[in-house]
Design a protein that fits this description.
Elements lengths: L1 E5 L3 H12 L3 E5 L3 H8 L10 H8 L4 E4 L2 H5 L4 E4 L14 H12 L6 E5 L7 H9 L3 E5 L9 H6 L4 E5 L2 H10 L7 E4 L1 H32 L3 H9 L20 H14 L6 H18 L8 E5 L14 H11 L3 E5 L4 H8 L27 E4 L2 H5 L4 E4 L4 H4 L3 H7 L4 E4 L6 H6 L3 E4 L5
Helix pairs in contact: 1-3, 9-10, 9-11, 9-12, 12-13
The chain binds uridine-5'-diphosphate-glucuronic acid.
The site of uridine-5'-diphosphate-glucuronic acid has 21 residues, from helix 9 and helix 11.
Length: about 450
C-alpha cells in the first residue's frame, strides 16, 4: 500500500523504515531541507540502533523522501502524521505542527478519500478536532505509538498491542491492515479512548518508576537490598517485573511530557488528580537523592559517566544529567563527563542551542561542537577513562554497556578518590568493595 509519513523525527523515521520492511511503499515528508538532504545521502539524522541498516536497504527504493506534500500524497491512500508535539509551560503539548499539516492537507485536497492517521501523541479530543477541521473526504484515525527510544525497531515489530481509534470501521480496518504480518492484539476503539490509552500507559510507567525509586530509598535506609525486594515484588504477576529497576528518576521526551499533558487534560476538565503530581514530585526528589549520595562536592572533581536519559540513544531531553551536572557545578564541583553518543546533544541542550533530536523541529543547525560555550568547571571528553582519571568520585548516570563492562580494579586505579555512586546499579557491590571502592547504588547503598 503506498503510504505518506509526515515528519522525519524518531517516530516518523522508524515508522517509515519499518513499514517498508513490511512491504509498503512509503514517501516520507519532512519540511527541514537539511534533514531531507542528509536522508537523501543515506545518512540517518538520528541515532537509533538498527535504523541505519533499514534506511540503507529502503532509501531510494521502497522509501522516498520529499519536502513536497503533493509528491508525498501522490497515489497515497493513507498519511501518517508523526510530527512533533513538544510540551509547553502549561503542560499542554504544542500542536502547531499538526494543525499546519492538516491545513496543508485540506488545501491540497484531491479526489478520493484520504485516511489521516495521527501517530503524534496528542491530548484526548484532538483527533475529533482534526476530523472537524478536515471535513468530508478525510477519515481521521488515532494510532498512538509505543516505541521506546533505543529499541524502536524491535518495538515496532513486536508490540504488546496495536491501538486504532476511529469513527468509521472501514478506516480502522484500513489502518490495522498496515500492520499485517505483525503478531499483536489490535484494540479497535474510538478516538478519545485511543488517545487516553497512550497517555495512561506512559503515566502508569512514570508512577510505577516513582514507586520503585521510593521502595529503593526505604531499602537504602534499612541497609536492605532493594533490588532483591523489587524482584520479589515483581514476581507477583499482577505487578510484573518491568519498570522495577531503581535509578536516577525517569527522563526522556515521553514520560515527563505525557504525564504533564494528562495533568493538563484533567485540569481543564476539573478532575482533581493526586497520584500523578506526587509521581512527578518523587521523580524530582530522586535526582536530589542521587546527588546526596556523593556527599559534599565543593572543590572536588567528579567524573560523570552518562549524559543520555537512558542507554541506546543520544537523547538528553529531561535527562538526569541535565539536572545533576548543573547542580554539581553550583555546589562548587568540577565535572568531567563522558557519554558514547550524547555529548553533542548534551552540549546543545546545556548551551541553549536547542536539542538536536526534537521531532522535525529545526535540527542540527547551530549545534556547537562539544566543549564550545560550556559552563565553567564542566568538561566533556570522548574517552570514559579520561573522565575517571584523577577524579575524587565517579557518578554513573546512564546504563551504557561499556560502563557496566568496566573492570572495578581499573576504576580504582583511574580514580584519585574511592567513591562510586552508581545510579544504575551496574556493578556488584561485593566486587566493588573487594576492589577497594566505596560503592553506593540506588536501593543497594549499605
Ligand atoms: C516511553 C515508553 O516506554 C514507550 O512505550 C513510549 O512509546 C514512549 O515513551 C513514547 O511515548 O514515545 P522512552 O521514553 O523511550 O519510552 O523510554 P523508556 O524505556 O520507557 O524509559 C523511560 C525512563 O525510565 C528512562 O529515563 C529510563 O532510564 C527509566 N527507567 C525505565 C528506569 O529508571 N527504570 C526502569 O526499570 C525502566
Amino acid at each position: 500500500m503506498p503510504i505518506a509519513v509526515a515528519g522525519a523525527g524518531y517516530v516518523g523515521l522508524t515508522t517509515a523504515a519499518c513499514l517498508c520492511e513490511l512491504g509498503h511503499q512509503v514517501t516520507l515528508l519532512e519540511i527541514d531541507v537539511e534533514r531531507v538532504a542528509r536522508l537523501k545521502r543515506g545518512e540517518s539524522p538520528i541515532f537509533e540502533p538498527g535504523l541505519d541498516a533499514l534506511l540503507q536497504r529502503h532509501l531510494g527504493r521502497a522509501l522516498k523522501v520529499t519536502t513536497d506534500l503533493s509528491e508525498a500524497l501522490d497515489g497515497a491512500e493513507v498519511l501518517i502524521a508523526c510530527v512533533g508535539t513538544p510540551p509547553t509551560a502549561s503542560g499542554a503539548p504544542n500542536l502547531s505542527a499538526l494543525w499546519r499539516l492538516l491545513g496543508d492537507l485540506r488545501r491540497q485536497r484531491r479526489s478520493g478519500e484520504l485516511t489521516v492517521v495521527v501517530k503524534s501523541t496528542v491530548p484526548p479530543g484532538t483527533n475529533r478536532r482534526a476530523q472537524q477541521r478536515l471535513g468530508a473526504g478525510f477519515a481521521v484515525v488515532s494510532n498512538p505509538e509505543f516505541l521506546r527510544e533505543g529499541t524502536a525497531i524491535h518495538d515496532f515489530f513486536h508490540p504488546d498491542r496495536i491501538v486504532v481509534g476511529a469513527a468509521q470501521p472501514a478506516a480502522a480496518r484500513q489502518v490495522a491492515a498496515l500492520y499485517r504480518g505483525i503478531d499483536a492484539p489490535v484494540v479497535v476503539t474510538g478516538w478519545e479512548e485511543a488517545e487516553l490509552i497512550k497517555y495512561a500507559s506512559n503515566a502508569f510507567l512514570a508512577v510505577k518508576l516513582s514507586f520503585t525509586n521510593e521502595v529503593a530509598a526505604v531499602a537504602d535506609s534499612l541497609g536492605a537490598d532493594g533490588l532483591t525486594v523489587l524482584r520479589g515484588v515483581g514476581l507477583d504477576r499482577r505487578i510484573g517485573p518491568h519498570f522495577l529497576a531503581p535509578g536516577p528518576g525517569y527522563g526522556g521526551s515521553c514520560l515527563p511530557k505525557d504525564l504533564a499533558a494528562l495533568r493538563w487534560t484533567a485540569r481543564r476538565r476539573r478532575v482533581r488528580l493526586d497520584l500523578l503530581p506526587a509521581a512527578e514530585r518523587a521523580n524530582r526528589r530522586q535526582r536530589q537523592r542521587v546527588l546526596a549520595k556523593l556527599g559534599p562536592v565543593a572543590g572536588k572533581r567528579i567524573a560523570v559517566w552518562g549524559l543520555a536519559f537512558k542507554a541506546g540513544t543520544d537523547d538528553v531531553r529531561e535527562s538526569p544529567a541535565l539536572e545533576i551536572i548543573p547542580a554539581l557545578l553550583a555546589h562548587g564541583a568540577r565535572v568531567v563527563a563522558h557519554d558514547p553518543e550524547a555529548r553533542r546533544t548534551f552540549a546543545a541542550a546545556l548551551t541553549g542551542t536547542g536539542v538536536q533530536r526534537e521531532g522535525s523541529a529545526p535540527a542540527s543547525t547551530g549545534v556547537p561542537a562539544p566543549g564550545a560555550g560550556l559552563p565553567d568547571g564542566l568538561t566533556l571528553v570522548d574517552d570514559m577513562w579520561e573522565a575517571a582519571r584523577g577524579a575524587d568520585a565517579l557518578l554513573v548516570l546512564t546504563e551504557w554497556p561499556e560502563y557496566a563492562a568496566a573492570p572495578p580494579e581499573a576504576i580504582r586505579t583511574a580514580l584519585a578518590g574511592d567513591l562510586v555512586v552508581d545510579a544504575r546499579n551496574l556493578f556488584d557491590p561485593e566486587v566493588m568493595a573487594t576492589a577497594g571502592l566505596r560503592y553506593r547504588g540506588v536501593g543497594r547503598d549499605r
